[in-house]
Structure formats: C-alpha cells, structure tokens
Design goal:
By secondary structure, the chain is an alpha+beta fold. 45% of the residues lie in helices and 11% in strands. It has a 5-stranded antiparallel β-sheet. A hairpin with a 5-residue loop joins strand 2 (97-102) and strand 3. The longest helix has 23 residues, at 25-47. 27% of the residues are buried.
Amino acid sequence: MNTEILQFLRELSENNNRPWFQAHKERYDILRKAFLEEVQELIGKISLFDPELSGLDAKDCFFRIYRDIRFSPNKIPYKTHFAAYMARGGKSSEYAGYYLHLEPDGCLLSGGIWMPPSPLLKMLRQEIYDQADEFTAVLEEPSFKETFPALEGDILSRMPAGFPADSPCGYLLKHKDFCVVSYRPDSFFLQEDWKDKTADVYKKLLPFNQFLNYTVNDYLGNI
C-alpha cells in the first residue's frame, strides 16, 4: 500500500490544488484508511518494548493533510506527506515519541521532542545539564549514533540564560528541540517487513525518549 501512497503524494505535489484533490478524494480516503491500519499495527509492535503506547489509537496520531494557510504566505492547500506521531496522548502530546513521515524522496523516522513549550524546554535543559553524562551516553551509544547521528532542530547562537557559558555540555543546551532523525529511502517502506524494521529502529529510541519523558512527567505534574 505504501507504493500507492507515495504515488498519490507524487501526483499531489504536481497538482496541489482543490479541484484535483476533490477529484481524487475517494482515493485519498482509501489510502488514509490503509495508512491508519498500518500505523495501528506499528503501535502494537512499539508497545511490546514501550508499554506507554498501549491502547493508543492511530487516529489520534495521524496528521491531517490539510495545511493551515490562514497566516502563511504559502497558500498551497495540502501537505505532500503522510505522517503520524506515536506518543502517549497522541500527536498533540508533550511526551517524547515516535514520528513516521512518508514523502516521496523525503521519508524519515524520528523521535524525541520537537518545539517544547518554553517552561518544558527550560526543565529539559536543566535535566540535561544535571545529568549530562547520562544523556551523552545515550546519544553516543554506538547503535543509536549510527542510526541517529545528531540532534536536529533549531539551535541558539548563545548559551541559554541560567547556565555557565563554559559548560562542556553547552552544545546540547543550545538546542531548542530535542529530536533525532533517521532518513530513509522510499524503498525502505516498500519492503514487506517494513513495520518490523521500523519497530527495530524505534526500539533504539527508547532510552532517549525515556530520558526526556522523565522530565515531561515532572512538567505535566506541575501545570
């Protein structure tokens, strides 16, 4: 089914307008349903090593294809990818989780926390500062680093307030996001066992997500 999903997205990228989408809406609905079924199966596989996802509904993890163009200069109406964020509470959760992104020539697997609110970001930085050795060990574990080479996302030009300028973990504290990415060729998702292989990739994320979610639990307990 991923072959059909990627083909649909290729066509959508070339015809990103409402008349074309409406003419192919039934096709989209079929592909969306199939994708949700695959995500639900993937959630089951992840739950075997991360019980926090037990009982999670794929519908709560799926990102709608319609772009919010109200305040954007880019008025293209539709996203050209299928995506799901699998975390405790679903796609809008503050928790670190597992992100799946299907897009022609832009597929990826990712995890961690992207764009945390300022109070949570401050707490995450403090925890990383206090437990720098533990966090660095997670990032530098050979299998993890081979799959997820570095933290991604926006980085401050200066050390955030409240931390010493000469901190050896300053390169970590400057991050505004704590997420990692493993870019994958389209062919990865066309294999019959892609969900098993994806679950194997996500399993490497577990210590990283658990480290971050320790702080998320404290944060959510205090708001």
